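Teaching note: in complex prediction, the entire set of molecules is handled at once rather than each chain in isolation. The prompt given to students was simply: 'Predict the structure of this complex.' The entities are:
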Amino acid sequence: MGSVDEIVKDRAHDLEDTIFVAVGKNVEKSKTTLFWAVQSFAGKKIFVLHVHQPASAVSLTDRKLAVSKQKQEMIKAIAELEKKKMLDVLNQYCSILAHGGVKADKVWIEMENIEKGIVEIIAQYNIRWLVMGAAADKYYSKKLTGLKSKKAIFVCQHAPISCHIWFACKGCLIYTREGRNDKSEPEIASLLLLDCELRNEQPEYLRLGSFTQTCGYVDAVEGPHDLEGILGRFNYECAVHSSQSSNMVLRASKMMPLIDEEEKSKGKTTEKPYHELQQTIVDSKDSKKKAFEEAVKRWKEEDNAMEAKCKAKALEKLCIKEISLRKEMEEELARENEVVERTQNQCDEFIEEVQMVQEQKSVLESQLSECNCMVKDLEEKIISAVELLISFKAKRDAARIEYENAMREVIRLRKLAKMETVSFSKSEILEFSFMEINEATQEFDPSWKIGEGRYGIVYKGILRHVHVAIKMLPSYGSHTQLDFQNGVEILSRVRHPHLVTLIGTCPESRSLVYEYVRNGSLEDCLACKNKTMPLPWKARLRIATEICSALIFLHSKKPCIIHGNLKPSKILLDADYVSKLSGVGVTYLMPQGERLGTNIPISNRSNSNFMSVYADPEYLDTGTLTPESDVYSFGMILLRLLTGRPVSGLVKNVKCALEKENLKALLDCSSGDWPVEQAKMLAKLALRCCENYRMNRPDVASEILCVLETMRASCVDLASCLDSKELHRVPSHFICPIFQEVMKDPQIAADGFTYDAEAIRGWLKSGHNTSPMTNLKLEHCNLLPNHALHQAIQEWRRSW
Ligand SMILES: Nc1ncnc2c1ncn2[C@@H]1O[C@H](COP(=O)(O)OP(=O)(O)OP(=O)(O)O)[C@@H](O)[C@H]1O
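The expected output is the structure of the full assembly:
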């Protein structure tokens, strides 16, 4: 099949004689229109024109509605089939027309809009003659004079005016649109007359003059009576081919007027009767009609066969597709089944896991409930412990108040004691029997001996459940019992916080019973005896001040009490390292001749073993004790505290160091970093105390104590900030869990915790048999002293 361009080009020369017949998809309708054209324009070249709507346009709605790929493919396949079918139909048309001797060709164009396509082709190729359907066959009636088909109306309105268009329906001309062209009028008339002739079947057209109405130029044509003449100009030769082959061949050719030709050939004019001609025409028409009906029948059958064939092919294709789809579906199904199986397995695993988790959950829930019970118990215990603590705190507060009251009472009593100028009666000093002294010292067990001085041995002892130190004075025959008691009377008046208290006497054994001072002497401490920690400089300064205050107290007594044997071994330290001066007034209990130094010849005094290096040289020279003698000894003690060195030659060395501004080298580094200025001040004070001439020595009350207090105050200021810091540094294990204070007497209870003895005893006495810390029952109520901790606490205390 050639394109329109090719065909029209080839036929350009005879386009004038070419009739285009527009045929549609509706085969029936198109056939009648085609046959009308063939019949009407015998001898003319026929172009069967079909404007085909491509699948894209035809199936647009269907495609929109299409939901599946398969359906889309089916629609496409059907469109392809339709196209093919239409081409077959056109081919059939052409071949049938060819059989009938009609020159026919087909023109195939694909366009989305059919009517526009037709108009466009007319315009493009300057088509002069066109036949197309006016309406569907069903609309046909004898009265039908107008166009029904939308396509026909459109083409009629929009086709170029040069084109002459016949609109037919059911094999009848319905309407003609006149074309203005330069074709000779007679030729057009011939075409139109042929048309009119064919419309003889519908004489009403002619009769009613509708033809005249539709074909404007038919003015020239006369009424039906002229039909014969017109017909006479054409000769129809209709050949009906054998009906066996079911092929109807129409051959229409341009007829020459037969009568004239015969007349010419015969050379004579013979008139055929009109009725014969009429009969011939009628016969010819009958034959034509029959042939037409035959052809229509055959075409119908062929159409049906073709349609069935196409359907079968389509079905076959569909079937193949269906099979492949089915295969794909089966494969898909198998895959899906696998997935389902896997999912099922996973689901089973999940269920197992869920079961496990549920089991764990129930276990955890039971544990949780147990924990909750425990928490409840513990909460109750905590509440009871807190209550207990509160009650203890209340007790502690009450005890504190009691303690403070007692302290106030003590202070008041001390003040009273100070104010007392009257001598104490003998009854204020306890008197012990020898038996008691003997028992207290375990019969003077040497292991209970704690020291020995020039004036006798000192034993440790327990008298009436009190720890005491018993000094056994030597017995001097000339020294009567009365003298002893007079001496004791003097001593009994001497009570000071920094003097070792005389508790009682045993006149029988000439022994003096003192309070027991636990931590030994300053001498031992400076020598670090028993591997004790060195005494810090602050503690040394404090001790100096304390001893100074004791000297002032003694010297202020009336009559004045002079210690006369002041040295570090006479300064004792109690549990809190508070210093206490011992040996006060012992010289008063000695016979004059036995007193220190007085029985030694002056020439030998300086070399005597009995002579203390701390002794006042003037006293040694003169044998007269004065308060300044104590000042000298005190000065020597100060030098010892500063340097920690033996006092022999110390005065000279310190002097030298001060002159050389090199005192720091002499200071006892084990006591920490002395503040240099304070150390200098103290050294200078000490040197003044150690002046050989007593007149050059400072007054103990007005000068020495002032200097010491000032120094101490500045040191306290210095230390206070340290104190506040250090307070926070109290080791937590020094604190009693009950009293929340530093323990005085740490004791280990059965629960393994250490408490202050007072606190834990109070706890046990109040009826508790449980641990204050764990609230568990105590196995026993025994307490064990925590010596190590006690020692540590003491060390810690001593450093302040
Ligand atoms: N109340 C006391 N508590 C504890 N220990 C004491 C007490 N009194 C004395 N001592 C110890 O006994 C030792 C002997 O003391 P004592 O006063 O008899 O002699 P001294 O001072 O060593 O020498 P002297 O008196 O001959 O100059 C002291 O160094 C001291 O350790």
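Point out the following to students. Residues 434 and 508 are 6 Å apart (CA to CA). The pocket of adenosine-5'-triphosphate is lined by residues 450-455, 458, 469, 471, 500, 514, 516-517, 520-521, 565, 569-570, 572, 582-583 (CB under 6 Å).
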